Amino acid sequence: MMELKTPGEIEKMRTTGAFIAQLLEELTTMAEPGMNLMELEYRARKMIDDRGAQSCYWDYAPSFGRGPFRNVTCLSVNDACLHGLPHEYVFEDGDLLTVDIAVSIDGWVADAARSVSVGTPRPEDTRLIQATRDALDAAIDHMRPGTRLGTVSASIGEVAKKYGYPVNTQFGGHGLGRTMHEDPHVPNTGKARKGLLLQTGTTLALEPWFCATTDKITFDPDGWTLRSADGSRAAHSEHTVAITEDGPRILTAPA
Fold first, then answer.
1. Residue 141 marked as a ligand binder
2. What pLDDT does residue 65 have?
3. I need a surface site. Which of 17, 165, 212, 230 has the fewest CB within 10 A?
4. 87 in a known ligand binding site
5. Is 181 among the annotated ligand-binding positions?
6. How confident is the model at residue 250 (pLDDT cuts 50, 70, 90)?
7. What is the spatial distance between Cα 78 and Cα 97, in angstroms, rounded to a whole number?
8. At residue 177, what are phi and psi to the nearest 5 degrees?
9. CA-CA distance, 85 to 136, in Å (whole number)?
10. Could you tell me what percent of the chain has a pLDDT over 90?
């Protein structure tokens, strides 16, 4: 069952979301050719500890994955699309990096992700990243009372189609609030005007992610990292968004 949040609870989620925006800005700005991927993980751990926040990833043990997740970030590089397990890797010029973070502050969760080019951007990566951002903007615009969830999902799929990218429906957005994953699941494509009726107080993590040339994914031997099945690159944009009486409110936007 989806839990509707009060204005006060949304404000608490906003506090968490503003901190996540800080984390994403710090980590994506830090990333540069020659840097080890693990430096981003260690920086995030320090920032989370200094803030007195709690990582939603540490000890996370869903039905997939191999054992509890013992990191505070998901760091996905190039053809890794989701749940990238931080590991020893030195960035090369032109790598495509996605940073995904969820934390809790005072019992309230927010979740966001951002893809960036490390060093010199490849035009095809810039286009892929922009597609996920455009899809996220389209979905956010539909986060209004009385909208059906299928309309939110359909808007993401429409942007993917416009850009010519396929859509995987195994993983998508989700409800959140007191925990990282709550009902409902939010597919990245759907049928407009169908599905759950969204109301004031709905809080969702919307997360369009696309692989350049496939909708199929594979698991790495680490049991966590998901990659495009054909080796094509992937990008991912995510915000935590609340439906308010005044329309959509992006809780993970910069302060």
1. no
2. 82
3. 230
4. no
5. yes
6. very high
7. 6
8. 170, -85
9. 24
10. 97
The model's pTM is 0.97
207 is in an annotated binding site: yes
* Collapsed DSSP state (helix, strand, coil) of residue 152: helix
What pLDDT, on a 0 to 100 scale, did the predictor assign at position 78? 98
Token code pair at residue 134: 């455009």
Give, in words, the CATH class of 7-243. alpha beta
Query: Which tens digit of pLDDT belongs to each residue from 75-129?
Result: 999 999 999 999 999 999 999 999 999 999 999 999 999 999 999 999 999 999 9
Token pair 């809780």: residue: 251
Please indicate if the annotation marks 83 as binding a ligand: yes
Please report which residue ranges of the chain form alpha helices under DSSP H: 7-30, 37-51, 123-141, 149-163
Q: Quote the strand ranges of the chain, DSSP E.
A: 54-55, 74-77, 80-82, 95-105, 108-118, 173-175, 182-186, 203-206, 209-211, 217-219, 226-228, 234-236, 239-244, 247-250
Please give the Cα distance from 1 to 175 (Å, whole number).
10
- Which pLDDT score, from 0 to 100, does residue 66 have? 83
